[in-house]
Amino acid sequence: MNRRPWLLVLLAFLYCVSPLIYPVFVWAYFGTPLGTVAKETLDSNSTLRNFETFVLPIGLGLFTFFARRISYFIVVVGSIYLVSRNVYVFASMGSTFPLSGLIGMNLLVVFVIVYLSRKSTRAIYFNSKMRWWETDPRYVVGWDARMARAGTLPKPVKIRNIAIGGAAVETPDHGFQPHEAIQVAFRYEGKDFEFPAGVVWEQRAGVNPNVIGVRWIDGKKSAAWHAMRALVKELKAKGTPTTRPSEWWQDVKAWFTRADST
Questions:
Q1: Are 98 and 22 within 8 A, CB to CB?
Q2: What mean pLDDT is predicted for residues 157-177?
Q3: At 262, is the pLDDT very low, low, confident or very high (cuts 50, 70, 90)?
């Protein structure tokens, strides 16, 4: 759950517990004990309807949480199927089916469909780079450094944050090309570091200082990669702040703080 979009997590959770919606509404409406409702539902429903009521929502909740391209289509198709089947069952059973339970379940399913139709939500499922919770922690450092583009002398820059895979760098230069080769050098705790890198993104034009995202391009067996790995371990051991809370409880606390301030 750590670092995922909280609305996505909440919807996945609600989907997983949605099989309780029908028994709870029947209990509230008729006063029938939950255990009795569950047993009578299982006994009276067909195998297909029991699957739709108790198994499919849990599966769709897990696929919602999984957040991959294939799970996107599974959740959308499964949600549309659930809505249509719920309406069909109600039309067939008429007044013997508690309308409040149907409305509660269908509202949840429709909201999931609407949420998944948003462009920003689709990007999470279709673009692995948007799933920030799968990336390595980025340590906030603010180090002075030097950066050289091809055919130019090194210029002073500042490393905003750094990770085992790359860094965010403040630079006075603009107009970087995708995958442009650069060299980044800095000094930390009396040690000199120098890494070849490639530009992967650049802040929008006209903003100063400009910020670029760079990715270290040496392979995992290189001396530079081992040096970066040791550096990141040292930053972690020292408790260096990260761009996101690194512990789940910090993430939960930060979320409640933001929610309370809005």
A1: yes
A2: 92
A3: very low
d(CA 164, CA 51) in angstroms, rounded, equals 45
Phi, psi dihedrals of residue 260, rounded to the nearest 5°: -70, -25
- Cβ count near 200 (within 10 Å): 16
pLDDT in tens, 102-134: 777 888 899 999 999 988 788 888 876 666 566
| Residues 78, 112 contacting (CB under 8 angstroms) | no
The 3-state DSSP class for residue 29 equals: helix
Place of tokens 């130019």: 152
| pTM (predicted TM-score) | 0.54
Q: How many CB atoms are located within 10 Å of the residue 207 CB? A: 10
Which domains does the chain possess?
6-130 (no CATH), 136-244 (2.40.10.220)
Task: With CA atoms as reference, report the closest residue to 45 among 19, 25, 27, 63.
Answer: 19
DSSP class of residue 229 equals H
Residue 216 burial by Cβ neighbours in a 10 Å radius (0-12, 13-18, 19+): buried
What letters, b where the CB count within 10 A reaches 16 and e where it falls short, cover 54-78?
A: bebbeebbebbbebeeebbebbbeb
Instruction: Give the E-state strand segments of 52-176 in sequence order.
Output: 139-149, 155-162, 166-171
Instruction: Give, for 184, the enclosing helix (H) or strand (E).
Output: strand 181-188
